[in-house]
TrEMBL record:
Listed name of the protein: Gliding motility lipoprotein GldK
Residue stretches making up the Sulfatase-modifying factor enzyme-like domain: 44-442
Keywords in alphabetical order: Lipoprotein
Transmembrane intervals: none
Keyword Lipoprotein: yes
Alphabetized NCBIfam families for the sequence: GldK (TIGR03525)
UniProt-listed InterPro entries: CTDL_fold, Glid_motil-assoc_lipo_GldK, Sulfatase_Mod_Factor_Kinase, SUMF_dom, SUMF_sf
Organism encoding this protein: Flagellimonas halotolerans
Lipoprotein is among the record's keywords: yes
Superkingdom of origin organism: Bacteria
Pfam families, A to Z: FGE-sulfatase
Length: 459
């Protein structure tokens, strides 16, 4: 019987090998993966690869001496055509909040031994509660890995098929009520008869790998370079008060982030670490959808490097002082070209007091809006005054984990024209949030379909 088994196995191997050769005809044809259909990311514009003179080509009026000119080259990438808006960031906050609520409901249901058949909170039990519905792989992972980490519930699938209930009059049972109550501020911290969500509980947790450190180390355990982050991601709305002494800005504090009137305005009050967390979530959100449709994953969304930001802001204009070229900030019709502070004490001379909608003023030649003014923007680069002296001329970037000063670019609604120049450098500390700093994301370019013959264009 044993001989018969191995003979059968050898026959299967032989037939498989022969079949493989017949398909390739003995030629080196490569391993075929999934069919990949590149597509332009929603809300982004393609910035073509190229070289440019980075730095202060014009007089350095501020005498900062931190941006001497240097010719550098950057690869192609996609960039958001506007700053990330309040509406887009709210999508992130709502997703995290809902995930936390679902996790708390599932954990309590698990502790109580309640499943979907029990209705009420049981409808929100972990999907693996009914093991008859699990695949062989899922059963194996549950049996061998559940409870091995710091959190027994880490990685268990939530049931997102059932809608959450936010109307208190429709809560299904007391257990559901208990979980929902834990998400709100206590009664003594409420006023005007309204109970608000405790935003300190809206935390996003994710892992990332420090590939640069791992590559330079040349040895060591892979897990030593995997970092875990967990942080509060709700914008700091108090920046509208703290950034300005002896100034009445309470309406902006009260309404700017959550009210629909400001949905299309750029999000502010987000520090560098929160902007990075948003990029991670956006990648996950897109790839979860890709996975559900059996499509190949997209590469990550991230913050632009300082060089990428300046190259994109220039819009292909050689030696331009501003995204529209320059040298003036007023058009030939007498209108200001961006949202900034044109005159001392006069913030409204450009027809805006604070921020304006993200898609305002004329875009540059790459169809990017507000690359000057409105809000300054976080980049992925650490700030070093002497960086231009030693940076690589190919995709230059300083990504030091020890340097907490991060480059911001573009100037804002409260800045003078100097900070609107495409070559002006500034910085803020990575854990600081401001009422005048936002961000936009980029994604590396990996080709696109050629409509003429269906092939992909070069990278």
């Amino acid at each position: 019987m044993r001989k018969l088994f191995f003979s059968s196995l050898a026959l299967v191997f032989l037939l498989t090998s022969c079949g493989s050769k017949s398909r390739s005809k003995g030629e080196l044809v490569g391993v075929k993966g999934k069919k990949w259909h590149p597509e332009k990311p929603y809300g982004m514009e393609l910035i073509p690869r190229g070289a440019f003179v980075m730095g202060k080509a014009h007089e350095d009026q501020a005498k900062t001496l931190n941006a001497p000119t240097r010719t550098v080259t950057v690869r192609s990438f996609y960039m958001d055509d506007t700053e990330i808006t309040n509406s887009e960031y709210r999508q992130f906050v709502e997703w995290v909040k809902d995930s936390i609520v679902r996790t708390r409901l599932a954990i309590l249901a698990d502790e109580l031994g309640i499943g979907p058949e029990d209705e009420g909170i049981g409808e929100y039990a972990f999907k693996d509660t009914d093991t008859t519905e699990l695949s062989v792989y899922d059963k194996y992972m549950l049996d061998n890995y559940a409870g091995m980490g710091d959190n027994y519930y880490e990685g268990r699938a939530l049931n997102k098929d059932v809608d959450l209930i936010w109307d208190t009059s429709e809560y299904p049972d007391e257990y559901y009520t208990e979980v929902m109550d834990s998400m709100y501020l206590p009664e003594e911290e409420s006023y005007n008869g309204l109970r608000s969500i405790d935003v300190t509980k809206i935390k996003y947790k994710y892992n990332w790998m420090d590939i640069e450190a791992a590559a330079r180390a040349r040895s060591g355990n892979r897990k030593d370079f995997i970092k875990q982050e967990e942080l509060e991601i709700y914008p700091d709305t108090t920046v509208w008060i703290r950034d300005f002494e002896y100034s009445y800005n309470e309406p902006m504090h009260n309404d700017y982030f959550w009210h629909d009137a400001y949905s299309d305005y750029p999000v502010v009050g987000v520090n560098w670490m929160q902007a990075k967390a948003f990029c991670n979530w956006r990648t996950k959100f897109k790839n979860d959808d890709q996975k559900s449709r059996g499509k190949q994953f997209v590469n990550q969304f991230r913050l632009p490097t300082e060089a990428e930001w300046e190259y994109a802001a220039r819009g292909g204009i050689e030696g331009g002082k501003y995204p529209w070229g320059g040298p003036y900030v007023i058009s030939d019709t007498g209108c200001f070209m961006a949202n900034f502070k044109p005159q001392r004490g006069d913030y409204a001379a450009d027809a805006a007091l604070y921020t304006v909608e993200a898609k305002s003023f004329e875009p540059n030649e790459y169809n990017l809006y507000n690359m000057a003014g409105n809000v300054s923007e976080w980049t992925n680069s650490s700030f070093d005054p002497g960086a231009y002296q030693y940076l690589s001329t190919m995709n230059p970037n300083i990504g030091s984990q020890d340097n907490k000063r991060k480059v911001i670019r573009g100037g804002s609604w409260k800045d003078v024209a100097y900070f609107l120049q495409v070559s002006t450098r500034d910085y803020e500390y990575q854990d600081s949030a401001r009422s005048y700093i936002g961000f936009r994301t980029v994604q590396d370019y990996m080709g696109e379909e050629d409509s003429t013959n269906g092939s992909r264009s070069g990278l």
